[in-house]
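Q: Predict the assembly, please.
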Amino acid sequence: MRKGSVLSAFLGVMRRDALSLWRRRADALNPIWFAAIVVTLFPLALGPEAAKLARIAGGVIWVIVLLASLLSLDALFRADLEEGSLDLMLTSAQPLAVLAAAKILLHWLATGLPLLAITPVAATALGLAPETLPTLLTSLALGTPIISVIGACAAALTAGLRRAGMLLSLIVLPLVVPVLIFGAGAVEAGLTGASTTQPMLFLAAGLVASVALGPLVCAAALRLGNH
Amino acid sequence: MPDSHNDAVPLLAARGLAMVRQGEPIFGPLDLELRAGEVLLIEGGNGSGKTTLLRVLAGLLGASEGRIERHGVESEDLTGPVGFLSHALGLRADLSPLEQLDFFACLYGLRPGISAMGALKSVGLEGFEHMPVRRLSAGQRKRCALAALLHTANTLWLLDEPYANLDRDGQILVDRLLEAHIARGGAALITSHGLIEPNVSRVRRMRMELADA
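A: Predicted assembly structure:
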């Protein structure tokens, strides 16, 4: 692969960010610890009554995953802006949307995927019916990349602001409400024995649309913020 | 230096370029031309708009007025790659100089004939190749960013205060890099607040004054 090609720029951004995540892996794991701890809070607050927990487990896990994904968004473009490497990306004449896509993919790999990996444990802890677990995992697999994309666009908009964490949540949460509705809706349908096809198709359509358009929006927001 | 370079189309040209921000003039209107094989030194005091001018020329900021041409072609959004050095050097604190150079190369492409190790050696960072940039001094970071310029393939360099933070040897190093760059047919636009004289064979000067309100 020739250095300086679009593919090498995409991989270069991914490798650099993965390396700096690895060097700060204790920080990178924080969203996962957060999710694990919040899961244990529900039985403590609601009492250990298994039927009640099992009833709400799907929705609870969806909300926890959503909130945990937000935690790592704030830092997504902050380093690039502060250290000046965003200037490098812009002066390199590489398509910024491709570089943004690399950052979004890495955000999902570093946050969405580990959250997906601990979901079976969380679901068991909350007593979710085992036959609903595949539905929950599929809905999360379709939904978490959408959260990463929408979150990255908001992070790009707020990267230049000091202490944007709260603002970021206020921008992202309303936008991902549909993802939550269809995601938790699919689990609910699975529990009651109804068909999960419709909410899954909505999630899949949302995933396709956000993967196609998200990096472009993200790049436009980054250019705007760097002015 | 063959004279044919002089007759060629300028690598970078600006005509009637001016910047106004919230009603306050930042610089200009000004004209400039930068041809292959020369260094253009922009001199001016603090706040005279040098950094803003450089960001506009790099395509990071839109100008209020005027136009910019690269290789004689006017472009709305400047697409060609440029070597860009600003006060924020673009280095990731957790990564080593060697890893930074690889990142730069992935973005800009490699200059043939020089390895990352060779580039780091020639800026005096031998022995620091694997140390996180966080643990390097300000001058060593600057040297790392200079090594990245040397390692990548850009012909046009836009350097904001390349001599800042460097010791005497470092300043001689910048002169040496600029001299080699223009000898290869490259061009560089550098800014300075006037304390350090670049010692390069072909320097043209341009003075920026504070814009009148």
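Chain A touches chain B through 30 residues (CB under 8 Å). Residues 23 and 197 of chain A are 41 Å apart (CA to CA).
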